[in-house]
Amino acid sequence: MAKNKNSRSLLALIPILVLVVFNILVFAIVGSSVKEKNTSFWVGYGFITAGFLLVTGAIASSKLGKGKIFNELVPNLLIVAVYAVINLVVNIIAMAVDKQNATVFVIIDVILFIVLIIFEILVFLGTRQIKTNRKEVQNKVNYINHVKTSCELLLDRTNDAQVKDALKKLLDDIAYSDPMSGDNSEITKEERKLKSLIEVLEDDIESASAEVLLQNIKSASNCLKKRNALIKAAKS
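Predicted structure:
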């Protein structure tokens, strides 16, 4: 966490240093005539300064965690950097023209800022969709992992050889099952049924007869096969 914070701080220094150099160059060139400058000069100067501060803020607020650099940081900084470059060019022209009426440059700057906001919103929505998709994928993978773990724990709770063999066979079937759950209602139904059968086994593993346990394991195995067949059919 501290490392990421330090990285952001170092990156944020870059636009600040560029802004400092920009100010030194501007006022070195303009010199004592700075008081004679017209509206467009100060409009250009103000928007350039705001642009650099915007880049600094974008870097400082960015998250550098795992999976966030390319999904969030790069798109955001790329958009802000493009804005900063265009903003710099437009407002250097405004400063050079040095006219009393700066309406045209103000309009251009406002349009640029609106476009920036639109692109930032699109990046935000895209990033949120990526997160949602990733979470859905993780949930689908977690299902089969949960079933596998439950069956592995059942093995340690029984001493019956037949029940152990049946559970091992079920575990083998789970290991070769599709790790991704489907969105089909029939698949969801079978997965819920399989989960219920595993829960029954968890409750009865130490009290029910071997015959009952073997029957429940067989039902779970058939349910798993049906689930896998439905997923295969959905993908074909």
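Summary: The CA atoms of residues 4 and 65 lie 7 Å apart.
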